[in-house]
UniProtKB/TrEMBL annotation:
Keyword check for Iron: no
Designated name of the protein: GAF domain-containing protein
Transmembrane feature ranges: none
Domain of life where this protein originates: Bacteria
Length: 275
């Protein structure tokens, strides 16, 4: 993503915004997740773009670990970096995995030293043109949910200011993802509550419809609905809507007063008993 710019008065070349303003704009952008059409994949690619725009790096990537699942690569700024990251995940060894499991930031440089930590990963990354890796855990309090991976083509470690900013970007990513998950949960609960209310309304309408057409009380009508739904293994709310729509017709309950769904001998009128 190109650096943010502003148009100077009178035209001419756009001026690059000061780094502080670009940092503020990036953090605000990553915090803006409370929208109905939130796209987590696009959001994570924006994280890598902000890293590329603000930090002295060559490539950026994000790995996340869904609950109970292994670490997975979800965004990378280039196909070259993606190949290195996938190799690391497949080999199950490297600075990014170690940063995730230990919950601490890791600098890995130079990649061509001997002896070197994670030799297989180091050789693969060096062959791809990288000379330094900085991995920052994506943490929420005590929980590590992923790792932000920053690759450089120069052998120097990431500067102190960039290290602090990378942690701020990782923390903002974690908070935003959790906020979105909470919002999704809230929306799911609200949808379930609304469905329950809609279902109850349909059932009440069917009760009133049956009571009116069959000359029974609402309680008897409800038991009739339940008995029919159970007998035919259909949802009570679906049956209720069909009854109101007229696509399903339920006969009046037994005139002897037998409750729907119950069975047993019919009571005889004592006046009709034989001698």
């Amino acid at each position: 993503m190109p650096a943010s710019t502003s148009d100077p008065p009178g035209g001419g070349e756009p001026a690059v915004l000061p780094r502080e303003r670009r940092v503020t704009a990036a953090l605000i952008d990553l915090a803006d997740v409370l929208v109905a059409d939130f796209d987590p994949a696009e959001f994570l690619y924006r994280v890598t773009e902000h890293c590329m725009n603000l930090l002295d790096i060559s490539d950026a990537g994000v790995m996340l670990a869904p609950a109970g699942a292994p670490l997975q690569l979800v965004a990378a700024s280039s196909e070259r970096m993606r190949a290195v990251e996938l190799f690391e995940l497949d080999a199950r060894t490297g600075p990014c995995l170690t940063a995730y499991h230990e919950g601490t930031a890791i600098d890995h440089t130079p990649l061509d030293a001997s002896p070197v930590r994670w030799p297989e990963f180091s050789a693969h990354a060096f062959w791809a043109g990288y000379r330094c890796v900085h991995a920052t855990p994506i943490r929420l309090r005590e929980d590590t949910i992923g790792v932000l991976n920053l690759f450089r083509r120069t052998p120097e470690v990431l500067g102190e200011a960039d290290r602090h900013l990378s942690k701020a970007l990782a923390d903002t990513t974690a908070i935003s993802l959790v906020q979105q998950a909470s919002l999704d949960h809230h929306r799911t609960v609200n949808r379930q509550l609304q469905r329950a209310l809609d279902s109850r309304s349909a059932i009440e309408q069917a009760k009133g419809f049956l009571a009116s057409h069959n000359g029974t009380d609402p309680g008897t009508a409800f038991e009739q609905l339940r008995a029919h739904a159970r007998r035919h293994r259909i949802r009570l709310v679906d049956l209720s809507r069909d009854v109101v729509a007229g696509t399903v017709t339920l006969p009046p309950p037994d005139s002897t007063g037998e409750q729907p769904g119950k069975s047993g001998p019919k009571k005889q009128d004592p006046r009709n008993n034989g001698p």
